[in-house]
Structure formats: structure tokens, C-alpha cells
Amino acid sequence: MERGDGIDEETIKKLPPGVRLSWGIVKQPSRGPKGELSIKKIVDAAIAIADRDGLAAVSMSRVAQSLGFTTMSLYRYVTSKEDLLVLMQDAICDIPIPPEEAGKPWRQEIREYVWACIGVFREHPWYGDIPIMSVPLTPGNLQVVDWMLRIMRDFPLNDFEKMSFLLLISSYSRACGLIARDMDRAIREGGSPEAFNGASYGEALRQLVKPERFPNLHPIVMSGTYTDEADNPIADDLDFGLERILDGIEHYLKQKTSGQ
After folding, report:
1. Residue 1: its pLDDT value, please?
2. Can you give the residue range of the structural domain that contains 121?
3. Is 63 exposed, middle or buried (0-12, 13-18, 19+ CB in 10 A)?
């Protein structure tokens, strides 16, 4: 059955309930005082709890209590905690996307994409605690995907190559985001950058890491490189890794252009 907006309802029903809610194609309840409760208010309250106390603190009852409603009132809008998590993920992925800028180098655009993604993990530390269950399906997530595809729009690549590069860049963003998040958390809980980077433990490791057992690691530890005690000629490790990924993409694009 097709609705007036051209959406086939039977096809849409195959999507998970939380995904359907994120697209606003689920009929909202008409009972109750108008305007007192909405999906947005529920999601915003859940995000506030997660930002403050972590993902484990989010429950339908806790969210309802924070809003001054009964738990059953929430279930009229969001049918399960799983659906609520989907909506929370989608909401924080709805980030500002820079407008297109003629002549802007694509490498710079990808850097902006990566650091914007890392920012999501740092601003909402619980985001990385939700397991990936499928390809992105919600509009907030898909807008970020569309941003990366916009950057690659004129690349001499087929769609599968573009999606593979999207996965590569997004995976690196996620890995870096989790590291940055964990460092923020460690420092917030009383740790120090030196402890997180290993500098506080360098002397101990130099006594424990023997060349007989760790022949390849030993010289790295002894030089202070492993524990970030030596001068670092490559500056930031995450930036360095990203630049090497971009070098690889650039090399591949040149090969494609030259027909090799």
C-alpha cells in the first residue's frame, strides 16, 4: 500500500521500529495533553542523562522521571529502550555540515570530516558504547555519509570504491574518536596525559622489557619512543596516520586517472 507521499508502507515496515521513528513516518499518539511530550523531548532527556552519567544510566523509567511523566507515557512515543538508543545515536549525528566551497582541497575536506566525527565521540562519550548493528539507516547518520560522498563526488571511482573509502575513513575516525574519548575520560577521572601516553611508566618498562623476550620492542622502549618521552618528529600520531591514509587515496586516484 502506497501513501500519498509515495512511501510504500509494506516496504517501510521492514525497517526496525527505531529507524522508522527517526524518519518521522510513524504515526504519533494523539491522546494526552498536546505538546507536553514528544519524541524530541524524550531523546533530548535521554542524551542529557547519558552525557552526564553514561549509557548504563539510561532507562525508560529514568528518562520518564526526568521529564515528570510516567514510564508508560514514554512507551506511547518510543516502544522500547533499543529504539530510544537508535534515536539518540541519530540525534547526535545530526552535526553541522560545512557548505561546499569551490576550490577547497579534498584532503582538507576529509580532515574536517574526520575531526567532526571524532568530536561526536568526545562530546558524547557513550556513543562508542553502542554496538554497530547495521549500515547507517537513520537520516542523521546518512547526512554524514552524504557529506563524505560529496567530497568524493568527482573522484574517478565507481560506487563500490567510494563506499570502501568511506568505510576506511569512518573506521579511522571511530578508532581515533574512541582513543580521544578514553583519554578525556582518564584525565577527567584524575589521570594525567603523561600516564595515558605512558611517560609515567617509562623507567619501569625499561627495566622490565628485556631484549631476549621482546627483541623488536626493546629498542623502542629504551629510546623513549614507546612511552612518548622522546622528541617526536612526526608530531601528532593521529594526524600522521590520517595523512598516510590520504596519501594512499591520492596515489590510488592518480593510478585510476593514468589508467594503470
Report:
1. 46
2. 106-191+230-258
3. buried
